[in-house]
Each structure stands twice: as C-alpha cells, then as structure tokens.
Amino acid sequence: MARYTDAKCRLCRREGVKLFLKGERCYSPKCPIERKGGVPPGQHGPRGRRRMSEYGQQLREKQKAKRLYGVLERQFRRYIEKAAKNPQATGEVLFQLLESRLDNIVYRLGLAPSRSVARQLVSHGHAYVNDKRVNIASYQVKPGDIVRLGDKAMKVVAVEKNWADRAKNAPKWLQRKGPVGKMVRLPEREEIESGIDDKLIVEYYSR
Q1: How far apart are CA 83 and CA 66, in angstroms?
Q2: CA dihedral over 201, 19, 191, 77, signed as positive or negative
Q3: Which of 36, 46, 170, 186 has its CA 20 to 30 A from that of 108?
Q4: How does pLDDT run across 5-46, given as a tens digit for each residue?
Q5: CB-based contacts of 57: which residues, under 8 Å, 6+ apart?
Q6: DSSP string of the chain?
C-alpha cells in the first residue's frame, strides 16, 4: 500500500499549521512551527508573497485535510463521492466519514499519541470493535460501537505514556471509561477540525 515516508514535519511546514502528526513532539518547543513559524520547506525558503489564487486556496485546504487524516488522493476522492450522495451538507458528511475511521477513533480516545501510531496499532491487529479484532484503519465505526485496544498494545510505551496524560479528554461525541471507548453519535461540524474550510474542499472537487 502506498504511504508517505518522508519527514512528517515537512507537511506541517508546507501547510503553515500544526497537523499534529508527530504526537508529543508537536506540543514541544522542538516543533518547527514553534521555532520558525509556517516557513515552507526547501533550501531556498519562501518564494515571495504572491497572492494565492482561488484554486490554490482550494488545493491547500484539500491537501491539509488529506495530510491531517493520513488519507491518499484516491481514497479521499471516494469519501467526497460518498458524502456528495448524502442529502446533508457534503462538507459536514465528509468530515464525519473521516472522523469515524477506526484509526481516528483510537487517536481521539487518547489511546495513541498520533493518528499514524493509531493506524499502526490497528494495522497490527491490536484494535477491537465490539470485541472483534479489526485490522483495517479505514473501518467505519458506527454510533453504539465499542472500541478498545488489546492488553498487549496497552503495554506499549507510547500508548501507556499517552494514556497516563489525563489532560487529553475524549470529545463529547465519544464516551470513554478506562481504556475502553464508545461512539455515542456522529460528530457535529463544530466539534471536528475547525482549522479547515470544508467548503473550499467541496468547491475543489466540483470544478
């Protein structure tokens, strides 16, 4: 399966915002966004301050969402097509689909320091949905489903350390009791990522 293997911090620098792809490092002074601000990657640095076109703004929002959730273009397009068939607002349904991914649920419950770690835990068979092992990161969790990690995964240092940080609370659309979480309902738009303009993403694919 194709996946991004370059430095994750380059993605944050390209988008000019924190995408929280490196877990604890993103909250520390080591984060490039903290040290240098949103300076684009490359040896020559920023190339002037030309006004970004409408297409450029749409593209950047789309790239930001893809990189935040770790989804490649073909899969992201399928999410858009599925969301467009729903009578609700396409942008809201799109983010509901992305937030309902199993790897994202594991991350949102505080069981992993980042979505990439959560994806790895799921892919290695450490995640359970309704007590059934699921190793597909894109698995769509439904309201009422119970999600947990196996005992072996809970002993992983990264998971154990993140779980010990009680400051990271689960969002309101999820319930968490100990190391077990439940999806109560689908998230509302204001409860999802506020730094991304979903209207620009929908406009990009409507061209």
Answers
A1: 15
A2: positive
A3: 36
A4: 555 555 555 555 655 555 555 545 555 555 555 555 555 555
A5: 200
A6: -----S-HHHHHHHHTS----SGGGGGSTTSHHHHH-SPPSSTT-----PPPPHHHHHHHHHHHHHHHHT--HHHHHHHHHHHHTSSS-HHHHHHHHHHTBHHHHHHHTTSSSSHHHHHHHHHTT-EEETTEE---TT-B--TT-EEEE-HHHHTSHHHHHHHH-TTSPPPTTEEEETTEEEE-SPPPGGGS-TTS-HHHHHHHHT-
pLDDT digits (tens, 9 = 90+) for 113-152: 889 889 999 999 999 999 999 999 999 999 999 999 998 8
What is the Cα–Cα distance from 112 to 104, expressed in whole angstroms?
Answer: 9
Question: Which tokens in the block code for residue 147?
Answer: 């999600």
pLDDT of residue 1: 45
d(CA 164, CA 167): 9
Maximum CA extent, the chain: 54
Could you give all domains of the chain from N- to C-terminal order, each with its CATH number?
1-50 (1.10.1050.10), 101-185 (3.10.290.10)
Strand order in the sheet with 146-149: 132-133, 127-129, 146-149, 180-183, 174-177
d(CA 143, CA 182): 8
